[in-house]
Design brief:
Layout: H1 3-11, H2 13-21, E1 22-24, H3 29-42, H4 47-64, H5 67-85, E2 94-98, H6 102-111, H7 113-122, E3 126-133, H8 145-158, H9 160-163, E4 164-170, H10 173-195, H11 213-216, H12 221-227, E5 228-230
Parallel strand pairs: 2-3
Antiparallel strand pairs: 1-5, 3-4
Helix pairs in contact: 1-2, 3-4, 3-5, 4-5, 5-8
Bound molecules: iron/sulfur cluster.
Length: about 240
């Protein structure tokens, strides 16, 4: 189980259940595509080749998406290209994308189980990561979709300090011991909620609405087909 899946299951067991059975059509396209581009960059592809990968992947997604989802994908495409073109870091360094403000993210990083686990796996006590903020701009009444999308992209050029920051993650032996104890308890809890998933409505709306809000309280078959792809090997 990946760490983001554990976080999802702890936040809302029903969301975790849906995520294993239904994939939203434009699910995490921005994060996934940026992480894939970065992985290509680390393997030696040039920045321009990675930019082409981002542009082509979004172009394919936009042409395959139902009309109501297309504007959102166009905004994500320009955001991804702006983020990538202005990305100031070295190819050897790790990256992490977040919607959170840097000071909030730094606080989370200070005790994040995910990073305790990463450091433990690498058998190191500290590492530097490059944190990149995803934009939280709102569309102006005077803008059309393309203008808004381009503003999201260009904002990375005009406000680099708002979007890019290096952060140090450090853990002590005490942190690793505490993580092992917590991880064992979480494993037992996850085994229970996988059998009987329940809704935690406190997690429905945050910076972004839950991907399953459209169907969670009204399991409409047509909506499922329109917005999601069914995953056959998910839990019953
Ligand atoms: S809509 Fe709310 S209750 Fe339903 S899966 Fe999402 S977070 Fe959970």
């Amino acid at each position: 189980m990946k760490y983001h899946e554990i976080t999802t299951a702890l936040l809302c067991p029903m969301k975790y259940h849906w995520s294993k059975t239904l994939v939203p059509h434009n699910k995490e396209s921005l994060r996934k595509i940026i992480y894939s581009a970065f992985s290509m960059f680390q393997r030696g592809f040039t920045k321009d080749e990675c930019s082409s990968f981002i542009a082509n992947t979004f172009a394919a997604k936009i042409s395959a998406a139902p009309e109501p989802d297309q504007e959102d994908l166009i905004v994500k495409k320009w955001t991804a290209l702006g983020l990538w073109t202005n990305f100031p870091f070295d190819r050897k360094e790790e990256i992490r994308l977040t919607y959170a403000l840097f000071d909030k993210f730094e606080k989370v990083l200070a005790f994040s189980n995910e990073y305790t686990c990463i450091l433990k796996d690498k058998n190191i006590e500290s590492m530097v990561i490059n944190v990149i903020r995803l934009p939280a701009l709102s569309k102006r009444e005077t803008e059309n979709g393309i203008e808004f999308a381009m503003r999201c992209g260009y904002d990375y050029k005009f406000r680099p300090l708002f979007y890019y920051k290096k952060m140090l993650v450090r853990r002590t032996k005490k942190d690793f011991d505490r993580w092992e104890k917590d991880a064992l308890a979480i494993k037992i809890y996850l085994e229970t909620i996988e059998k009987t998933p329940f809704r935690n409505t406190a997690a429905c709306c945050g910076k972004q609405d839950c991907d399953y809000l459209k169907i969670c309280f009204d399991e409409d078959e047509l909506k499922k087909q329109l917005y999601y792809t069914e995953v056959k090997n998910g839990p019953a």
